[in-house]
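**User:**
Everyone, produce one record:

**Assistant:**
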Amino acid sequence: MGTLVITDLHLAPFGDERTSRFVRLCDQLEGVPALVCLGDLFDMWVCRRQVRLAGSAPVLDALERLVRRGTEVHLVPGNRDALLGAWFERRTGGKLHRDGFVGELPGGEASVFVHGDALCTLDKSYLRLRSLWRFWPVRLISWLAPLWFARRVGSRLRGFSEATKPTKLPEEKAIQGDAIRRVMHEAGASVLVCGHAHDARDEPVPRAAAEPQRWIVVGAWGWDRDLLQIGKAGRLDLDSWANISAP
């Protein structure tokens, strides 16, 4: 089994059956070189004190056990867990990639891995909110604030974001082809893998140059094709968790 890529798990802060299932799946993985999560591991992450919650500690513990068994863990924060910080690396032994990363596939091709929210370049109101989460005073408050306060602020900001969604056109909320091409060009990559859109797809980059370029969206966890396997010679196959693990 090669490297596994997942995204958009949206695990509940206080835990539920989905959280327990993810912990069991992590504990079943053996001989996997790397597990990559492309964001929204948690449904909402508001401050470091959230590690005490029943839906957070078991997940972090499972990732730490996975690292101890020899699997690299890489996490690209998404829009729901953008406030995850460097402590994640100390807590789990994994690697946090704030803005994504470029990896070399076994066949020699370069692939860029991102969450995908920054590719929705027509959604100006969301991009402003995204920049707010990344503003250093907000991150400092997240580090220092008591849990009750951080959860209240986070809930209000999320409520504002959800309330504006019905007012936006589908094209405004969609990942844009020119953004995909720009990121791939800057990374020198021929493949872009992301999440965020939830619906899986594997297709040529829209209006790409003459050379082959590939855009893969991994489905949200529990949806169709919610797993990407990177196999020998750089083979990338969308699959399902259900096909590699017990229910």
Observations:
- The CA atoms of residues 14 and 54 lie 5 Å apart.
- The mean pLDDT is 87.
- Residues 147-164 form the longest helix (18 residues).
- DSSP finds eight helices and eleven strands in the chain.
